[in-house]
Design brief:
Structural class: alpha+beta
Low-confidence stretches: 352-358
Helix content: 55-70%
CATH architecture of the largest domain: 2-Layer Sandwich
Largest sheet: 5 strands, mixed
Number of helices: 8
Mean pLDDT: 79
CATH topology of the largest domain: Heat Shock Protein 90
Length: about 350
């Protein structure tokens, strides 16, 4: 119904505008007529010509354009379009000469010489071309907007699929590392094994059931980090010195889930996990006015410098590109005997944006 109403509104507006223009143009020939009579004449003439123009316009919109978009050659469309407009102009001139003019003016139509007839035909052709051009321009603009919307939707769906794939890799990666930790404790028959299994169960519950939304409150991610660090403390005992320092001004700040854990997990894996000696890991997280900064430091053996980047960091970088394009920075590298990872995200900049997944 909205579409029909828009079409009716278009033709009504066209008729009102062109009828007024026709009455102005008729002023030279009917200057003795009052304005109301000239307006009535102009609107009557345009109303009489409207069916021909409507047929020409809808032939272009629903026959020529679909065929052209379906693969019809451009030259064929141009020839067909010109032929239809020429035929409509001829039909319009015939109706003017033999129907409209005798009815409106009560006298026979004066043909004049061929120059006058040619100019009248050209005027009719341009008149039809004018309204067809407007309608086709609106149609093509609408099709372009629809194409852009479909392209945007496809990009979002692609980003969603890629992000889901990255998450599907990240979660098993985390689980694999944690199960390795539990395996080591179980082999030593550590009394802490049951507590670690329970903590792992809580972590997995959060990752499976609470991370399905585009964004979660930062408070939940902080609890995840605290639980994971405590799990690692139970595993390594006195051999690990781990600290977590927080400076948060808004615990409800939305953030995409599971973006902070990979950096902390990576620090434990390549810090205490690959060292036989006492290791230290420091996690500092600051959030001020929507800008988040995470700094993770861990002591590392010299042999770790030659190892390639793991799947966790690669996936994290790609997720950041999808979720916070142009609003994040991630730097990693060695500084003395420490490996440092520093992540900055402008959460406020993307607070009202829709994430590319749902």
């Amino acid at each position: 119904m909205n579409r029909i109403a828009l079409h009716i509104a278009f033709w009504l507006a066209y008729w009102l505008i062109t009828g007024y223009i026709e009455s102005i143009l008729a002023g030279a020939s009917f200057s003795e007529w009052p304005l109301s009579a000239r307006l009535a004449l102009g609107y009557t003439v345009e109303l009489a010509a409207l069916p021909i123009k409507i047929l020409a316009v809808y032939w272009f919109l629903y026959r020529l354009i679909p065929r052209h978009l379906g693969g019809r050659p451009l030259w064929g469309s141009i020839v067909a379009g010109a032929g239809v407009m020429a035929g409509a102009a001829v039909l319009f001139r015939l109706l003017i000469q033999y129907v409209y003019y005798p009815y409106l003016y009560g006298e026979a139509y004066e043909f004049g010489n061929w120059h006058i007839q040619a100019s009248r035909f050209l005027w009719a052709f341009l008149d039809i071309f004018y309204v067809v051009g407007i309608a086709v321009a609106i149609k093509m603009a609408r099709l372009r907007m629809q194409a852009l919307e479909r392209e945007k939707q496809l990009v979002q769906e692609k980003a969603q699929s890629e992000l889901n794939f990255l998450r599907a890799q990240t979660n098993p990666h985390f689980l694999f590392n944690t199960l390795n930790n539990i395996y080591g404790l179980a082999r030593r028959q550590s009394p802490q094994t049951a507590d670690i299994v329970m903590r792992l169960s809580n972590l997995l519950r959060y990752m499976i059931y609470e991370c399905t939304e585009p964004a979660v409150p930062l408070e939940k991610e902080l609890k995840l980090l605290e639980s994971y660090i405590e799990l690692e403390r139970l595993r390594y005992g006195e051999r690990l010195e781990a600290s977590l320092k927080l400076d948060i001004d808004d615990h409800q700040q939305p953030i995409a889930p599971l973006l902070l854990l990979p950096l902390v997990e990576n620090a434990f894996k390549h810090g205490s996990g690959e060292s036989r000696f006492k290791s230290a890991i420091s996690v500092q997280l600051c959030l001020k006015k929507g800008k988040l900064k995470l700094n993770v430091r861990n002591t590392a053996d010299p042999e770790s410098r030659n190892k390639g980047k793991g799947i966790g960091l690669r996936n994290l970088r790609r997720q950041l590109e999808l979720l916070y394009p142009g609003a994040h920075e991630l730097h990693t590298g060695f500084e003395g005997e420490e490996y440092i990872a520093e992540l900055t995200i402008n959460l406020g900049k993307h607070a009202k944006n829709t994430m590319p997944y749902r």
